[in-house]
Amino acid sequence: MKTPITLILLIFCIYSFGQKTKEEPKTPIIRISSFQLKTQITDGVKHYSFIKMQKKLYNVEYKIIERIENESTKLDSRDFRKKMGLFFKGESTGITTQGFFSHGYKNGFWKTEFNNKLVQTINYKNGLVIGRYRVYNVNGDLIYKTTFGSAGNGRYKGFYYKTGILKEEGNYQNGKKEGEWIQFNEQGDLTETIYYIEGMPKE
To answer: CA-CA distance, 106 to 90, in Å (whole number)?
Structure first.
């Protein structure tokens, strides 16, 4: 015959096994527009902050919606979108980037989507490019891959996501742009060559 203590332990184990583990509530992803952000290069690394100084970039996950403004989207003072703020300014390009910031610098894993399809993954350490880099076309096919390693050294290639045409190309050294970087238009023609020293364009 089982003792009362044994029975109590048995009942407790059965009860505990039947209980579902409660998951920690997930922090929501904050959606912002590219018009809400400003960037500046600090020591060769891109730093992000809100245009409105009273707002702060927290160390949480953001989804940045890329928006552009052209003649058809310019707003006058009567347009409700202007009254609603910078989030509604311009029109979406279909491109979103998502990841974490740390003190205004991109940190950890970041992904880019075009019309809700994954087209790029990249890794950062306090704004410095490191680790694996992958680019996909809109059909999901891998079109370029490399790794910058923990030191942040390697060849970068950026593409126009809609067509897969090469957009820019250059080297990273210690996580920063270095040497000759070349840029192309959407037809594939060379448009600009910029030289960098430790992430800063050479004048």
So the answer is: 24
The SS3 of residue 48 is strand
> Residue 33 pLDDT more than 70?
yes
Compute and round to an integer the Cα radius of gyration of the chain: 24
Mean pLDDT in residue range 137-152: 96
Contact 89, 80 (CB under 8 A): no
Whether 28 shows a pLDDT value over 50: the answer reads: yes
* pTM for the whole structure: 0.79
Rounded Cα distance, 47 and 32, in Å = 16
The full set of domain ranges for the chain reads 30-69+85-201
Residue written as token pair 């974490």: 100
Task: Return contacts of 38-47, CB within 8 angstroms, 24+ apart.
Answer: 41/199, 41/200, 43/198, 43/199, 44/176, 44/177, 44/196, 44/198, 44/199, 44/200, 45/105, 45/126, 45/127, 45/128, 45/175, 45/176, 45/199, 46/105, 46/106, 46/127, 47/104, 47/105, 47/127
Phi first, then psi, for residue 15 (nearest 5°) are -65, -45
- Please tell me the distance from the alpha carbon of residue 159 to that of residue 143, in angstroms, as a whole number: 9
In one-letter notation, the amino acid at residue 80 is F
Residue 41's H or E segment, with its range, is strand 37-42
